[in-house]
Amino acid sequence: xxxxxxxxxxxxRLEVDPSTPLLYVLRGELALNGAKYGxxxxxxxxxxxxxxxxxxxxxxxxxxxxxxxxxxxxxxLGTAExxxxxxAAFEAEQAAQCGYCIAGMIMRAQALLDRVAEPDEAQIRAxxxxxxxxxxxxxxxxxxxxxAVAMRKEGRKEAQKGTRDAPAGTRQAAAEPVREARP
Amino acid sequence: MKPIKWAFGGALACLLGVxxxxxxxxxxxxxxxxxxxxxxxxxxxxxxxxxxxxIGDCVVCHTADQGAAYxxxxxxxxxxxxxxxxxxxxxxxxxxxxxxxxxxxxxxRDGVGRDGSHLYPALPYDHYRRVHDGDLxxxxxxxxxxxxxxxxxxxxxxxxxxxxxxxxxGWKLMFLHQPEFQPVPGRDAQWNRGAYLxxxxxxxxxxHSPRNLAGAEEDGSSAYSGGVAExxxxxxxxxxxxxxVPWTADSLYAYLRAGLDGRHGVAAGPMGPxxxxxxxxxxxxxxxxxxxxxxxxxxxxxxxQPADRPPxxxxxxxxxxxxxxxxxxxxxxxxxxxxxxxxxxxxxxxPLATATALQLDEPANALRAILNGIHPPAGAAGPAMPPFxxxxxxxxxxxxxxxxxxxxxxxxxxxxxxxxxxxxREEDTRQ
Amino acid sequence: xxxxxxxxxxxxxxxxxSRRGFLAGGALVVSFALAPRAFAQLAGGGEGxxxxxxxxxxxxxxxxxxxxLDAWIRIGADGRATVFTGKVExxxxxxxxxxxxxxxxxxxxxxxxxxxTADTDRTPDEGLTAGSHSMQDSGTAIRNAAANVRMLLAQxxxxxxxxxxxxxxxxxxxxLRAADGRSLGYGDAAARLSLHVKAxxxxxxxxxxxxxxxxxxxxxxxxxxxxxxxxxxxxxLRLPGMLHARVVRGPSVGTRLREPDVAAVSRMPGVVGIVRxxxxxxxxxxxxxxxxxxxxxxxxxxxxxxAGTQPQExxxxxxxxxxxxxxxxxxxxxxxxxxxxxxxxxxxxxxxRDIPIMDTRGPTGPxxxxxxxxxxxxxISHGSIGPSCAVALFEGGAMTVWTHSQGPxxxxxxxxxxxxxxxxxxxxxxxxxxxxYGQNGADDVAADAAVIAMATPxxxxxxxxxxEQEFGWEPLGPGMMTQLEAALGADGRIVSWRHEVWxxxxxNRPVGAGGVLAGNEADPPFPVPEGKPxxxxxxxxxxxxxxxxxxxxxxxxxxxxxxxxxxxxxxxxLGAHLNVFSIESMLDELAAAANIDPLALxxxxxxxxxxxxxxxxxxxxxxxxxxxKGDGRRGCGMAFARYKNLGAYCxxxxxxxxxxxxxxxxxxxAVAAVDCGQxxxxxxxxxQIEGALVQSFSWTSxxxxxxxxxxxxxxxxxxxxxxxxGDVPDAVEVLVMDxxxxxxLGTAExxxxxxAAALxxxxxxxxxxxxxxxxxxxxxxxxALGPV
Lengths: 183, 431, 788
Description:
The structure holds three protein chains of three kinds. Chain A has helices at residues 22-29, 85-93, 102-115, 121-128, 138-165, 171-175; strands at 2-7, 10-15, 48-51, 54-57, 70-72. Chain A folds into two domains: 2-76, Ubiquitin-like (UB roll) (Roll); 85-154, [2Fe-2S]-binding domain (DNA polymerase, domain 1), CATH 1.10.150. Chain A is α+β, with helices and mostly antiparallel strands. Chain B has three domains: 26-175, no CATH class; 189-296, no CATH class; 316-430, Cytochrome Bc1 Complex, Chain D, domain 2. Helix content of chain B is 42%, strand content 4%. Chain B is globular, with a radius of gyration of 22 Å. Chain C is an alpha+beta fold. Chain C folds into three domains: 14-23 and 233-307 and 382-473, Aldehyde oxidase/xanthine dehydrogenase, molybdopterin binding domain (Aldehyde Oxidoreductase, domain 4, 2-Layer Sandwich), CATH 3.30.365.10; 66-224, Aldehyde oxidase/xanthine dehydrogenase, molybdopterin binding domain (Aldehyde Oxidoreductase, domain 4, 2-Layer Sandwich), CATH 3.30.365; 342-381 and 477-506 and 541-785, Aldehyde oxidase/xanthine dehydrogenase, molybdopterin binding domain (Aldehyde Oxidoreductase, domain 4, 2-Layer Sandwich), CATH 3.30.365. Chain C is 27% helix and 19% strand. Chain C contains 20 helices and 25 strands. At the B-C interface, helix 2, helix 10 and helix 16 of B face helix 9 of C. Chain A: Residues 1-77 form the 2Fe-2S ferredoxin-type domain. Chain A: Keywords: 2Fe-2S, Iron, Iron-sulfur, Metal-binding, Oxidoreductase.
């Protein structure tokens, strides 16, 4: 069947079996590497993407369920050259060992940051409970998420300051010290 | 739902008003005591209390998410509003540290706090009345030796006028008359032990029996014919059970102990913590509970469960033809665990064809499992199902539920599935 | 420091002298059962595998086996360098660390260096990437090779300029400079000389005081792609015309599907073919989802125990609570985790070969306190988050396999034997996978892919195992048991120490076709090779069973069990996890019996100055002296080990809080100190130690494979739960000792044992309950605590 998926803001028309989980379409048809196969059971979170802003298991979401919905993958947050907020925070904290789980971690954290302005430690830990890491990078992942929260807060402050003090031409840049992801 | 709740509330208020007017609501405060020393209780008594508390599942209601054990704070949604469980640690100021044994017994049997206030029947004192004195003493000893935690009670959020506690006296006048448990002659000791635990501390009827408009359990022939718990259907434990494979004492034992037995769906929703508690209870007690519950659906001399029960069915081809879209959703979202050849089934976990949830009149359990998932206690091994709220819309969850009904049941199709899914999702968002 | 007699100058030299040699100077009689071998001679970091012979024993690290400079470093005309290593990136950050080493000793910017990891056509064969050997083997080789190259470049420039070589300087920018200001790029100098020369052992190393790259926190070069969906993994390899395969097996080792419906699956749209070879079965499809669906269809077949050729798993029985429905942690699908008694019974029922590890005798005073205890560890899964994957292409009579195995050179030998090609027609190229922490399914899946590729010439085959296949078929970390008996004199000195360890071989790395599943499934089958122990000083089940402490009358025996009831192989730290757990638990048991501070007891028996400093550093960082007393809920514990007594030194201190209602243990804070010699990247070291600590907490507190009657019953994360975010420590701090210029000491596995023991010690401090059987689970602690 033909489905049209909206991924990172772009529409993709695909001819696939409607039962195909999004994960296999992302990796196999669209060559997007971020989402990983970890368990295929919704137990590890390595395949996490955002669907309509919420963190979802792409390994268990058939494409037939996704017409007209907004899908965002880690590729949609930024690039190695121009990283998104969380990507920059993970880089700054060197929050990866093997890194296989990390794209899923970032996408789950992104869903929290989209919903809660300043999540506290307990909220972050509870939210991240879904995703598994085996290298033991948890402490760094938590630090990276906290750093992203702080960076965003700083950015907001900068932005407010910017609108008060900065010349008009620099406001936009001040508001986005690190490129925020687009849905 | 809301208008119905209000109607319930109004009817209840009228009833209860009678009691209040009769002036029976007043109960005296009992004198506070200095918190007893933890080492003042005999270790055997505390140990006995621990096993009884596990069967009574005190910790489940009286512990908030991520909170200290027995310190209360957990929200208990009821049709009449939200109650918050109280702190039952021996903290003098915010817990039950200043409660004497008499005050504790009065609370457990009459639903009256130490200060004389009436307690809501969310504390199932209608069951605890049946419990023997010695067992209440053991539970008291157990609770008074917990770590005291300072945790003030959260105010309840009840619909008007049920926030006014004296009204509860009227409720009790009408519904609180259960006697202490007496063994049934002609039944063996194991059955009677099971009956005592199920009717008393286990308060199984609290969920598995229907309730009347005033929220009291129906007894007699209606007892255990199915009820509602936190939005989940608590299936009938009687011959009215819809389980595709009849329950036996052995299968009930396995289920109560481990959360599944291979030929019935897994313990989900509020039953999950119950099973977790029972997994730690004495084996003999759990066996006794299983024997007694099995007897509810197989009265003595009867032929056991009805023979006309349809066998477990799985009509995959027919369902795929009837609902190709549902079949595609199932193949992508569910088949990795629930289709033949999936590792979960190879490993002996139960197939959907044996799940009672798909045979019930209400789709609540099927939809709640799909949307909210099934979660073993943190860190423990056991059946797990991810929540599908983020990946499926209400319509898609409904579609899958309808497909499952077609494939695994020959009962009438569920109606208003999408609406039901939306309500469950809205409930989640609120919490 | 209590009661430690001064040993004079010799003690200061303890790091250079072997400790045994030092002790032999006293009244003690020392013997090693096996002549100690230079550990670099053991291929693959002393964890099995095959490897090249030593040809230049005078050199350092892997230069001993590959002494030619151009095997390690080439410099292009543009001045860029290419550095080759036979080691592989496993997520431990080795690419970045080696790059730092090369940049430092070449004295050029890391950005101008390209690092090539193991590729059997391009890089030196350095055996396995295992045993925390990468820095010792490859780091040392590259460090010295780079120093050699820099020396040759300087000599060449000096010759051209007619000046003395020692007046030519480098400045970190890839330029050579004479005192008079003339300069020459590395590329120009390199063009005038050949690097196909043997390294010399004494090329001058750079002065640590002037380090520009080493010892700094260079951001890891592999991380940006991992954060942004770049092609970072073997799993991301997409070759033109690539097909997707799934291998079809029963639920776990020792089972076989009876009659898979091959005919039905062959007709499925998108299925390209079925590959059968003996008992090996795979399905190949155009799209991955089709392959998965075909696999599931084939798996509908009933399975049975395989009486044939596969490695047998007789499967130890004895879940806690016994079988269906039993046990607090149980499930209907196979009982709870194995009880310690069942593990002990399964091991001791098998014939063992007794290997003496250590025997010292000396005069001592009488024993005042003695403790005898058994410690047990269950079978543990590597639990890689990404199931193993491989890509293979057979084309023009040659096979190329992309693998994330720790031993690509072994994969190349295994595949050659398995598919019957001459070794020079098989190339294995490493590409990163998910963390493996030892031998997971990586080698098996590479062999599987090669068998399939042979049947589909010209079409690349990508094969990834399913989650349940990784749990069911990978070699597990072996179940083990130790029995310790120790005595303490009235003066606080340990007067006797006996340590026995029972274990299967931890080294079943495949070196031929019999070592992989596809080989065992061939017709005729390649037989599973007999397990062999790794000799000391590295050891396998015996690893770290020889205490680094100076105990009088030490007797250590390894009961080596070659018959394996469960398919097993290397899991990070091998036997050191249980041996260090046992030694360091026993020390605390003795300390408690005699009411001595656990740190003081350790220091009183430790001669090695670096070991003492690491313990002291951790203790200071933790605030050991002012730690809260165990009060029934909170408690503190510490432990120490030097990995293999050859690698990094690591001490761990923990504060835990016990929930007495549930038995759950939370780590409130953890402090680790590590001495790994000169750290190439201190943050890389912190990352490794932090990760090892958290991983060991997971292993030690909650893991263990469950077994049903005929199969492994752990098949997913619900039946084999591991640590999640809700239970990770509140805080972890890693203190890296500064050892400028000191030789590299392997780091990656140093924290596994100490963390395990520190946890048991902290629980004991908090509750008075000594847990000796892993996992130190909430249920076991609650059962021991009782209702109060």
